[in-house]
Inverse folding.
């Protein structure tokens, strides 16, 4: 059974940082493309960060320079380091794993507010 479990969300003040984690089980993790989406209330789900071919990384323009995605294949985990957070980063953040089929985690809430 495939499971993706996100953690690390919470309430943070503008300018603060959070680190989201996504622990995967039930898949050959190193063979899967991994990334993060987010969905704010009333908005469509938005791709935030993903790995590209050749171990590159791609980010949405709205988070470029502030967010960093990393993975550890030995730990079956992908992280999203989020710095200089803004109120508009408030959303539910979802990790995904894809190899043909795409699997989703349950999401973790990030709220940026003073």
């Amino acid at each position: 059974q495939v499971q993706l479990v996100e953690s690390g969300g919470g309430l943070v003040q503008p300018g603060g940082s959070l680190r989201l984690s996504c622990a995967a089980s039930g898949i050959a993790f190193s063979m899967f493309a991994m990334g993060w989406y987010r969905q704010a209330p009333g908005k469509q789900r938005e791709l935030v960060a993903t790995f590209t071919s050749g171990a590159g990384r791609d980010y949405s323009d709205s988070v470029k320079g502030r967010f960093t995605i990393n993975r550890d294949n030995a730990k079956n985990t992908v992280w999203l380091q989020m710095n200089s957070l803004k109120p508009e980063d408030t959303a539910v953040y979802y990790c995904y794993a894809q190899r043909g089929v795409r699997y989703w985690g349950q999401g973790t809430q990030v709220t940026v507010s003073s």
